[in-house]
Design goal:
Elements lengths: L6 H24 L7 H8 L1 E5 L3 E6 L5 E8 L2 E2 L19 E2 L1 H7 L5 H9 L4 E2 L9 H6 L20 E6 L12 E7 L5 E6 L5 H12 L1
Parallel strand pairs: 5-6
Antiparallel strand pairs: 1-2, 2-3, 3-4, 7-8, 8-9
Length: 215
């Protein structure tokens, strides 16, 4: 089978491909600005770009909310620290020397010990001491639950004050056919009584059972 007629197109394709690679390499070397990979930016941050002739937008992939916007300049779409619309400016700040609080948010809320280590090794430049700041987000994130305020009630004997709560309906019936439950908590001893319920209307009857039991 004669394949000689394919040799010339193949050589032409290889030479053209090498020429384009060299041309693009020369073009990129002339750029004095840092370029951004749109595909990687979209994949990592779950966003998408919307380009227009003189402006562009970066939108959330799910909510379609505009997160960033910018203008075109000299044939390029420029992303600057003023591009943020709804996200904190801390993520786009051009300043390298800033407060410890800003660095704490930039780096994903590390501990004061980690931030102090970075500052002491001159990895970051802090204008304030890394240990002298408070982060409300970290305090809430490390709390297992919100603290309860004082009720103003004091008890001195068991069953002097009893709290009760009803939960339900459960999305799935229990093996015994219960969909609700009620608990009674003694304020003095913190002892808890638990009663499963088939229906919410059974609370009153269960309360009488509990009353007879404890009295």
């Amino acid at each position: 089978m004669d394949l000689s007629y394919l040799v010339q197109p193949i050589i032409f394709y290889v030479l053209l491909n090498e020429f384009l690679c060299c041309l693009m390499s020369c073009m990129f070397q002339k750029f004095k600005k840092r370029l951004l990979s749109v595909q990687q930016f979209c994949r990592v941050n779950c966003v998408f770009f919307e380009f227009h002739s003189s402006v562009f937008y970066v939108k959330d992939l799910i909510t379609k909310e505009v997160l960033l916007s910018g203008q075109s300049k000299d044939g390029l779409y420029v992303l600057s620290k003023n591009s943020a619309t709804s996200m904190p400016q801390v993520f786009l700040s051009a300043s390298l020397s800033t407060s410890a609080d800003i660095w704490h948010r930039r780096l994903g809320h590390p501990s004061s010990r980690v931030l102090g280590f970075l500052a002491s090794n001159k990895k970051v430049t802090c204008t304030s001491r890394p240990l002298n700041f408070q982060c409300p987000a970290c305090s809430l994130g490390k709390s297992s639950r919100l603290s309860l305020g004082p009720t103003g009630h004091k008890t001195f004997t068991p069953l002097e004050l009893v709290f009760s709560d009803v939960w339900g309906p459960a999305p799935i019936l229990s093996s015994d056919g219960f969909r609700y439950f009620v608990i009674f908590v003694d304020a003095h001893t913190k002892f808890i009584w638990f009663y499963p319920l088939s229906a919410k209307s059974d609370v009153f009857n269960v309360f009488h059972q509990f009353q007879v039991l404890v009295e």
